[in-house]
Design brief:
There is one protein chain. With about 325 residues, the protein is of the alpha/beta class. The chain contains nine helices and twelve strands. It has helices at about 1-20, 80-95, 110, 115-120, 130-150, 225-235, 250-275, 280-285, 295-310, and strands at about 35-40, 40-45, 65, 70-75, 100-105, 125-130, 165, 170-175, 175-180, 195, 200-210, 240-245. It has a seven-stranded mixed beta sheet. A five-stranded mixed beta sheet has the order 8-9-10-11-12, with helices on one face. A hairpin with a 4-residue loop joins strand 3 and strand 4 (about 70-75). The chain is globular. It starts with a helix and ends with a helix. Mean pLDDT is about 95; it is low at about 1-20.
Length: about 325
C-alpha cells in the first residue's frame, strides 16, 4: 500500500511538472532536484524534463544510486565534474558507505561527462562496450557542447573512458543486494543499458523508457528495433517499479504509454502518410497532438516524424 501510494504521488508530481515550466527545484545545489528515496535504499535525483541549459546545469536526466549495505552503486556519471560532485555530497549526507561503482547508462554526455569526478575519487566506472565506443568517438564533441552551454559549471570536466565494459550483463552482488546491469538490445542510443533489481522488482531503465517528456529519435535510433527490444526483453522483466531515464519514477503502464505507445503511434501515422504517397516535407507535420502535452514536444515532434519517415521509407 505504501509503495503504491508513493508511485501515485510520483506520477501526480510528474504530471504537474510536465504541465508547467518549473525552475530549478534545488537552488542550494547544482542538482536540479534533491535525491528522493523511491523504494528503500534506491534514490534518484530527478532531472529537468527539458533540454540541458546553464540554469539546470545539464541535469536533465535522472541520476540514481543504490545504497546496498556495503557500498553505493551510482547510475550515471552525470553531465559534468561539478554535477557529479554535487550528487556525491548528497550521498555522503545519507550514508557513510563509499561509492564503489558508477554505471554509465549510455555514451551520451549527461551520462558520462561526470566520470571525470568519479575517476578522481578512485571509483570504478562500467559501461556497455557500445557506449564506450560512443564516448571514445563523440566524447570530445559532447564535452565542447557542454562547455559552451554550461560555462564555468563545466569546470574540471574532461572525457574519461570506462574502466571496464561488458556485452550482455554485468552482475553485482553487494551488501546483500543483487543488482544486474543488462544490455537488452537496440533502443534509444548505442549501448543503452538497464539496471535490474530482481528482488525489488525495480528497473532503472535508462533511456529504454521515457516519462513526462517526449523522447528524441536520433539518426542512429531505429524505432523498429527499439520496439522489438521492448516487446521481447524489457517487458519480460516484469518490473513493478520503473525509474526512467527521464521523468519521475513510476510504473510500467506509464512508461509503456509514453515510450512504446508513442513509437507505435508515430510509426502508424508516418506509415499511413507513406501509403498515401506523402513526401518528407509533409511528414514533419503528421498529427502528434495526443502527445502535445509532453515537455520537449515543440523541440522534438517534427524532427522525430522526419526521422521515422526516413527509416520507414526503406523498411
Amino acid at each position: 500500500m505504501l509503495r503504491s501510494l508513493l508511485i501515485s504521488t510520483c506520477i501526480l508530481a510528474g504530471a504537474a511538472q510536465a504541465s508547467e515550466d518549473i525552475p530549478d527545484q534545488y537552488p542550494g545545489s547544482l542538482l536540479y532536484s534533491k535525491p528522493v528515496e523511491f523504494i528503500p535504499g534506491v534514490y534518484s535525483a530527478i532531472g529537468a524534463t527539458a533540454p540541458p541549459t546553464y540554469d539546470n546545469a545539464g541535469h536533465n536526466n535522472n541520476l540514481s544510486f543504490i545504497v546496498t549495505g556495503d557500498g553505493v552503486v551510482v547510475i550515471n556519471g552525470g553531465a559534468s565534474y561539478l554535477l557529479a560532485e554535487a550528487l556525491h555530497k548528497e550521498i555522503k549526507a545519507l550514508t557513510d558507505q563509499p561509492v564503489k561503482l558508477v554505471l554509465n547508462e549510455n555514451g551520451q554526455g549527461h551520462a558520462m561527462l561526470g566520470n571525470s569526478y568519479w575517476a578522481d575519487q578512485g571509483v570504478k566506472i562500467v559501461a556497455h562496450v557500445d557506449a564506450a565506443h560512443e564516448i571514445e568517438e563523440f566524447g570530445g564533441a559532447s564535452l565542447r557542447a557542454h562547455q559552451n552551454r554550461l560555462l564555468e559549471r563545466a569546470d574540471q570536466t574532461r572525457v574519461v573512458m570506462p574502466d571496464e565494459t561488458f556485452e550482455d550483463s554485468y552482475p553485482i552482488s553487494m551488501g546483500g543486494m543483487e543488482i544486474e546491469a543488462r544490455y537488452l538490445g537496440p533502443a534509444h542510443s548505442p549501448g543503452d543499458i538497464v539496471v535490474w533489481l530482481p528482488a525489488q522488482s525495480l528497473v532503472i531503465s535508462g533511456d529504454m523508457a521515457f516519462h513526462e517528456r517526449m523522447l528524441p529519435i536520433f539518426e542512429h535510433t531505429y524505432t523498429a528495433d527499439w520496439l522489438e527490444t521492448w516487446d521481447t526483453e524489457f517487458e519480460a522483466l516484469g518490473a513493478t517499479y520503473v525509474i526512467p531515464g527521464h521523468g519521475h519514477p513510476t510504473n510500467m503502464d506509464q512508461v509503456r504509454r509514453y515510450t512504446k505507445g508513442y513509437l507505435e503511434y508515430l510509426r502508424e501515422k508516418v506509415g499511413a502518410h507513406l501509403d498515401a504517397g506523402g513526401d518528407l516535407a509533409e511528414a514533419y507535420y503528421v498529427d502528434q497532438s495526443p502527445y502535445a502535452h509532453l515537455d520537449t514536444f515543440e523541440e522534438l515532434a517534427t524532427k522525430n516524424a522526419g526521422r521515422v519517415y526516413e527509416q520507414m521509407e526503406f523498411e
